[in-house]
Amino acid sequence: MDDFELLRHRIPGYEAFYIPDYVTLEEEQYLIRKITETPQQKWKQLANRRLQVWGGEITVKNVLLAQEMPPFLRSYPNIMPRLQDTGVFASSPHRGPNHVILNEYLPGQGIMPHEDGPTYHPVVATISLGSHSVFHYYRYNPADAHSPDGTAAPPREGGRSIDATPVLTLFLEPRSLVISRGPMYTSHLHGIRETSQDRISRGDKNMPPTLTDLGVQIANWKMLSGQEAKKAMQAGGVLQRGIRYSLTCRDVERVSCAKPFASMTAQEAARRSCDHKRWWRCSGPNGISVELLPTCTSRHYWHRSPAFVVLTTYKSAPLTFGRRRRM
């Protein structure tokens, strides 16, 4: 998909794009099956939804500790390569997404207006699976026009106030892709209201359909492909939400050079530490047992944890070296 083709899916006047039927029904069924087969311990339970993180964890310093994506994202149905082929990530550091958050929304669940922040390149691509949803873009009230740090601010005390009326509202069908970039990423918030159904007032050739309770127009109504959704837009109706899975795909700009331990051999670790060939089992600060590989620099070590090998500095507490352990 080149830029010209992508422009056919642009929401007029906004740096937002809606692509219906981005994945087929068979691909959707396959992805949902893979998601539901995931072990329970992979899920993180939040107050209003649960999620999984694929591609690695992000540190407090906004650095990605990269891990391999699940096979069903890298191979069939080729979600990652296909997103790269859209061209929206062409100017990002890695020219494609390297981080995916899977959200599971039950009927009645949503997410408050928020920004994704400066950790990511200002492009986000979200695939919807299983059920429709309604996606709102918001802006801060004019008095709070400039975000100090790019983080989300709740529409209540302690943060910048958010205009309660959405700037733009999109109806997201199952199997669709929505892309936000540029000012829609950097200057706007986005969210999903907590509701189990969406009541739609019909539109006509001159007037878009609206969400009855909010009175906001559905901007992408002419782009929809599903018969049920199109009928609701033309005649009005109530659409019940089901279980929805969203794949939110972004490019984390800063990635740690530390290689996941699961894929690093002892020989690789040794070569990265001035040719010292053995790990040492040590008693570190507070008596914690650690395994370290000394470097040529005083108090610097390669620290082995269950997941990563990282360069560690112990400044305040001496290390008591115990028996040497061959790798």
- General shape: globular
pLDDT averaged over residues: 82
**Strand proportion:** 25-35%
Low-confidence stretches: 147-158, 260-279, 294-327
Spell out the helices and strands N to C. Answer: HEHEEEEHHEEEEEEHEEEHEEHEEEEE
Number of helices: 7
Outline the biggest β-sheet.
7 strands, antiparallel
Structural class by helix and strand composition: alpha+beta
Supply the number of structural domains.
2
Strand order of the largest sheet: 1-11-8-16-6-3-2
Query: Can you give the helix content as a percent range?
Result: 10-25%
Q: Would you tell me which CATH topology of the largest domain applies? A: Jelly Rolls
User: Per CATH, which architecture of the largest domain?
Assistant: Sandwich
Instruction: Give the distance, in angstroms, between the N- and C-terminal Cα atoms.
Output: 48 Å
Assigned CATH class of the largest domain: Mainly Beta
Q: Strand tally, please?
A: 21
CATH homologous superfamily name of the largest domain?
Alpha-ketoglutarate-dependent dioxygenase AlkB-like
> Using only CA atoms, what is the Rg?
24 Å
